[in-house]
Amino acid sequence: MNPFRSRRVLAAAMFCATFAAVAAPDSGDRYRVTMTMRMAGMSMPGTTTEVCTARAQAVSEQAIPKDKNCEVQNFRVQGNKASYHLVCTGKNAMTGDGEMETLADGYRGSIKAQVEGQQMTMSYEGKRIGGCDYATESPEAQGRAVTAQVCESQLESPLSHTMYIGPKAACPTYKTKFCANVNRWVGQASDPAHFAETDRTYGAAIWQALEGCGGSRAAVLAKACARAESDGELDFVGDYCPDLVPRHCADADPNRNGRFLVQHCADRARGLAAQHCEGRGYTAMQSSPYKGFCSSYAAQRLNARNSGAQSTPAASPDAAPAGDEAPAKKPSLRDRFKGLKDRIGGN
Amino acid sequence: MHRIAAIALLVCATAQAAAPTDRYPDVAAAYWVEVDGRPLWAGHADQRLPMASLTKLMTALVAVEQGDLDTWVEVSAGAATETGTRLGLRRGEKLTRRDLLLAALVRSANDACRALADSIGAKADAGNATDAQARTSSPGTTAESRTSRGTTADRRDPTAAFVARMNARAAELGLVDTHYTDPCGHDDAAQYTSARDLAALAHAVLAEPVLAEAVQRRELRLATAAGRVLSARTTNPLLDGLPGARGLKTGTTPAAGRCLVAVVERDGRRVLVVLLHAPERWWDSVGLVELAFDAVPPHAAPDAATR
Fold first, then answer.
1. Rounded to two decimals, what is the model's pTM?
2. Which DSSP symbol is given to A282?
């Protein structure tokens, strides 16, 4: 599961947890809740969900469908009716007033709000369709289960470190397990090849995870650099240990460390190239010990020759000019309407 | 809603990944570099240019798809008098299609290439003749039921019949900037391709195990049916000198200049380089290969793509 998806699942789980979250009795009532919205003369098709709520608490603050960024204020109950004020913050901020009432077999309610000068009305009706085990079927319980599932599923992904580490971690109780995995992943990183592969594969995420778990990239890299230096792995030294580079330019072996010389020791590389590469045909180099060095030098020379064309887009009849990109389209009223419905209804 | 956004992101990401930059404009009249199938750099990728012996990639593909590689083929007078790079085949000698294919790919031998093309073209001719008879004798047969391959060729000209098949195959592969008039790559104003089309053709060639193996060969040792042994070396020095080189084909003519399709594999990654009219074909292809491997990190984690 990728982080994008996992965040969505987690968000859904958290939303479910806030939908009708009440103290857990032994059993509950299952409602089929239908929501409709009207705005500026337009109606969105109704959506239906089933919810397990605590028994005998149909008309409650928690039964109001809302996003986690919405807060119910002034919730007042009079007989079988209730009224409240709803305040939503964030991207689709809005305020509105709502009411709800208990019916013989359920409840119904509505929220009226002003959105960009337009009156928006969301109506909802919950019809009891049977009983349920609130302890396991309530949105809160299901949200907990999904959260646990997501937290477990990302333990093997260093890219998900923010789920386990930091002030906004959604799975803080899993940090120990996650950090054990991080330590396992970087455990061999004092080996230069392993360090390079880890770095290429996971990028900054693995090192952020390591730091979050109390480790240090600098400490691991220092060991890898020392080992690379002693083993003559100068490509690694050149790529990761710039402070050590000057020590090795003079004695680097052109046959083994051609790339290192070309990329990090310009003066020596120029001299070697003039002596062994320049003016020689590739086919004449087949038995030369400098073939590897000259190949690296060819790449360097190609870059130098084309230094003025580093990022020119390839000319192609199919390629659209960058300037032709359509400007961001202002969302239509229908789009904004739909966005609000998603936000308030949570679908 | 989320799904639409995700699809939009994916489309944008794909479009971005598929847009190469012209980073090395002086390397060739047209060029194409990709890593693991993703275009990285390209210049004049859709320009129609002569292709010299890179033509033989299509010849080989059509031949392999025809099958019957162990069929013995008699070298025609036309094949024996082919010019340019030759294996030295004599009129009337017999070789298998497989050996002719190898000689055409590895040594870029025009005599072997022509003999191979004529052999398959002649069979197509015969097939067309049979088709024609069938159409004549079967009232109600519609024009739409005819095969498209070879129908435009002169039925007495096996080379033209083969070329028609090459063009049909190019059309099937979507090579919109490619047209053949000769199976072996002799210069002709109407024989052209593009760097992008050659990259697509290279993929089709590499998907054929027989061809993927053939283009890696550095040496050849063939025998005619009469026992005359012929040996040849590859025209591609990258196979000797560049670590991981897996082919693919060289080409040179006065009009096309120096051309190359090179494939190099290292640590499970594959770089494809196409050069059309490249003055420093070898050194520059080596440089492009090294730069391409450096430019794209290996073993990117699946999750990393979503970062």
1. 0.63
2. S
